[in-house]
């Protein structure tokens, strides 16, 4: 069959390669160049290699705990069961994961993992190594590639997806297909501070929403705890804490244990909030102390971070570096079954754009590249089979939040004002009042928006659509769970830390 893959990260390229190898006619359509996007930036690795005392079952249990009870066991079981095969496949496609002198894979540990089970490549350059290998693999095939093309919408006919509309060389055009696989990543640029590369504007998720596909869990946005608090957002991998680095306040005290018994290795959402609270209390960024690891280890294990921190004037082997959280990963997205099938026949979603049920309310570190590879391959495996997607009724059971137009802000729309609004009110620490203000403001902006013409206009429209869905979902989820954390209205962010449990 004729298959369009939209996006060219690990999920999209894995799906494209598997679909091609299964005999389908495949074209990859991507907004930037082939392989641009989030995968290439991933410093963390791929979880799923089990040493002595560890097992897929343990990995599944850790994933469920991090997901705060909302991960779906069946999806998690698939993730850990298929993981070994996908990691072997990446190696076969040319990814040189780091090994010791005997050739044994080196296993790292990150927060909320009970064991060291994460493979890395080039120390902290795993995503770049994977992206290179997959792009090279695709280039060696007859898979079609359309680069610098902006997908504006899905073509839906007779209740099924039959292709895409796109902006290419400033002209609008269409590509027809029997199946479309969305692999466009998340929507980090909803927020003023994000680890995501430019262009991560939720285009595929927005197109799916407009086409009528079910989305869910958009309120679960993961904020990575440790971004260098100096210059453009630059991630300091959790693996640094996995190796023993600590978080300290302005008096040099390890404050993370105030929030969770696992301290710096607590689930990401807990650590991010602990950092935000501490920074608010002390009026300056907290610091990550990696000095105990020594200059040699830091340079060899984390070459990218070592280079960038030094370029920015820090010698992290001698001094703690300032860090702050930033939006990192969207756990929710287009609802899929265990083969990436959405609620609309002909439409698949894989990778960060999909809501497979694996991540629940908070993704476990280094499960995202794994999920992209596992579900990319699983989607390709059922192409051509009679359609059996999830039912539209299953998810999205929560109703849209009501509108309060009187509280709409008079502020004019700009992408920066949207990002600041989302950061302030739909970020790490949320209140009912703030969520309602964000929702009403976004609805006002959407109501007065003009018809998008350029790719930038389409990105803005997509961000606004997802912002509304995210704020609405957050507002309608009472209480706190995982990455969705509500302060009581009277609690200021600088209040005394509370002990959190997962
Ligand atoms: C990191 O290296 O801390 C990021 C890895 C991930 O997001 O899983």
Q: What is the name of the CATH topology of the largest domain?
A: FAD/NAD(P)-binding domain
Give me the side-by-side strand order of the main sheet: 5-2-1-9-16
- CATH homologous superfamily descriptor of the largest domain: FAD/NAD(P)-binding domain
Looking at the overall shape, the CATH architecture of the largest domain is 3-Layer(bba) Sandwich
Order of helices and strands: EHEEHHEHEEEEEHEEHEHEHHEEEEHHHH
In total, the number of domains comes to 3
Number of helices: 13
Q: What bound compounds does this protein have?
A: succinic acid
Q: Into which percent range does the helicity of residues fall?
A: 25-40%
Per the principal axes of the C-alpha atoms, what is the gross shape? globular
State the major sheet: 5 strands, parallel
Helix/strand-derived category reads alpha/beta
Radius of gyration: 22 Å
Distance between the termini: 45 Å
Beta-strand segment tally: 17
Strand content: 15-25%
